[in-house]
């Protein structure tokens, strides 16, 4: 064991120094700026387009008095419903050729007309690409029903606000858990895939045989994995320091803008850091094992796409735990090693119990050791062509 740890320390120190002291590490630190920048740009564009298309517009062919009554009924609805979710109304004066006017209005693109309402108030008729029982038709029916009715004064209702309820806490904490999962997924997706190419250079330069003769293969895997974890943590510290001003500018001041987790912010943030390390080690061990079988950069690039899709599938599987932490799918996500860190982050936001996290961290650490051991034996047999012949059912045995 001591020889394995000494070898892993030597390999890890060499890889960490080569990574951090290289010129490309600066570009690595600037890496998250580009997806955030493009995400903000395209998110703003998408939100602008969605806001323009979300609100349907109905052309009302009626006299000014009839339109005013309908518009007043719509205004009364805005007291209880967001104006952006209600149908927009535009008045057009009736023309002699009603059919031609209706056809022309439906073809109008500025603003785009979804339907045309005619014949109010006696015989209302709605024409357009809408469903008879859809939201637009039902809203117009409600407006027409209250257009000619004088609004009665609403009875006074006493409202007693409380700080929180079980329903609001559960929903708010699920939001915190989802945000924690998204951060872990994004950071792991950004950082762990680099491990696919860790052994390509050594294999192409025939250095791996020299290293394998000096230290155990397990030390090579452990050293490289923890070296990249240390470099990633260094990058995280830089990104956290750079983003402190942005977090402080949030409403209500920093973390106060987010719903508080069940175990409090110190415990939740501490567990988030631990689960990031475990998530990185688990996925990194798998990626290091897969990448060790590649001989060229082209093969690594070919492996990158299925590896990325696999991460997305794992994240989708773990996301079920943020909504219903006690469901069967959530428990399965907590038990499955590769999704366990993400699922346990969501549980940390919703439950104050500490013992499940102790068990989960021990379970994940066990699987890190198992994956590294299997990866080292597979590398020794398939790449170095050394060691006794192994059967697939004996890969886990010493």
Describe what you observe in this structure.
The protein has 398 residues and is mostly helical. The protein has two domains: 55-147, D-Maltodextrin-Binding Protein, domain 2; 168-394, no CATH class. The protein contains 16 helices and four strands. The longest helix is centred in the middle third of the chain and has 32 residues, at 217-248.
Features:
mainly alpha, single chain, 64% helix, 398 residues, 2 domains
Helix content: 55-70%
Report the portion of residues in β strands.
Answer: under 5%
What does the radius of gyration come to? Answer: 30 Å
Mean of the pLDDT scores? 79
**Count of domain modules:** 2
> Could you state the order of secondary-structure elements as H and E?
HHHEHEHEEHHHHHHHHHHH
Give the strand order, joined by hyphens, for the main sheet.
Answer: 2-1-3-4
The SS-based structural class is: mainly alpha
Instruction: Name the overall outline.
Output: elongated
Number of strands: 4
Largest sheet: 4 strands, mixed
Please give the count of helices.
16
Distance between the termini: 14 Å
| Uncertain regions spanning at least 5 consecutive residues | none
Short summary of the structure?
This protein has 398 residues and is mostly helical. The protein is built from 16 helices and four strands.
Map the helices and strands.
Layout: H1 2-20, H2 24-30, H3 33-54, E1 57-61, H4 64-77, E2 88-92, H5 98-106, E3 115-118, E4 125-128, H6 135-147, H7 166-191, H8 200-204, H9 208-214, H10 217-248, H11 264-291, H12 297-318, H13 320-323, H14 328-335, H15 340-350, H16 355-382
Parallel strand pairs: 1-2, 1-3
Antiparallel strand pairs: 3-4
Helix pairs in contact: 1-10, 4-6, 7-11, 7-12, 7-15, 10-11, 10-16, 11-15, 11-16, 14-15, 15-16
């Amino acid at each position: 064991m001591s020889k394995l740890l000494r070898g892993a320390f030597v390999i890890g120190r060499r890889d960490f120094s080569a990574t951090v002291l290289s010129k490309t590490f600066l570009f690595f630190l600037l890496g998250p700026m580009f997806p955030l920048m493009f995400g903000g740009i395209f998110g703003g564009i998408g939100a602008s387009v969605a806001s323009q298309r979300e609100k349907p517009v109905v052309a009302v062919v009626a006299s000014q008095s009839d339109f005013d009554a309908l518009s007043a009924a719509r205004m009364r609805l805005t007291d209880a419903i967001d104006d952006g979710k209600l149908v927009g109304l535009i008045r057009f004066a009736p023309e002699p050729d009603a059919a031609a006017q209706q056809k022309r209005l439906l073809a109008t693109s500025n603003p785009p007309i979804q339907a045309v309402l005619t014949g109010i108030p006696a015989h209302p008729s709605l024409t357009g690409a809408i469903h008879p029982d859809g939201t637009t038709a039902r809203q117009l029916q409600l407006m027409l029903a209250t257009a000619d009715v004088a609004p009665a004064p609403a009875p006074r209702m006493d409202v007693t606000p409380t700080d929180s309820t079980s329903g609001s806490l559960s929903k708010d904490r699920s939001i915190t858990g989802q945000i924690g999962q998204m951060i872990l997924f994004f950071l792991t997706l950004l950082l762990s895939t680099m491990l696919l190419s860790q052994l390509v250079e050594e294999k192409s330069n025939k250095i791996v045989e020299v290293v394998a003769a000096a230290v155990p293969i397990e030390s090579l895997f452990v050293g490289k994995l923890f070296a990249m974890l240390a470099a990633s943590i260094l990058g995280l510290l830089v990104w956290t320091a750079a983003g402190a001003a942005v977090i402080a500018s949030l409403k209500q001041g920093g973390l106060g803008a987010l719903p508080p987790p069940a175990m409090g912010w110190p415990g939740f943030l501490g567990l988030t850091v631990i689960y990031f390390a475990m998530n990185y080690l688990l996925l990194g061990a798998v990626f290091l094992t897969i990448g060790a079988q590649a001989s060229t950069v082209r093969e690594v690039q070919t492996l990158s796409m299925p590896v990325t899709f696999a991460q997305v599938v794992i994240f989708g599987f773990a996301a079920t735990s943020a909504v219903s932490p006690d469901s069967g799918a959530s428990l399965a996500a907590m038990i499955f090693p590769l999704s366990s860190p993400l699922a346990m982050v969501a549980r940390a936001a919703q439950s104050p119990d500490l013992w499940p996290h102790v068990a989960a961290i021990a379970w994940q650490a066990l699987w890190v050791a198992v994956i590294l051991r299997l990866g080292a034996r597979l590398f020794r047999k398939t790449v170095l062509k050394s060691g006794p012949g192994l059967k697939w059912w004996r890969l886990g045995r010493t």
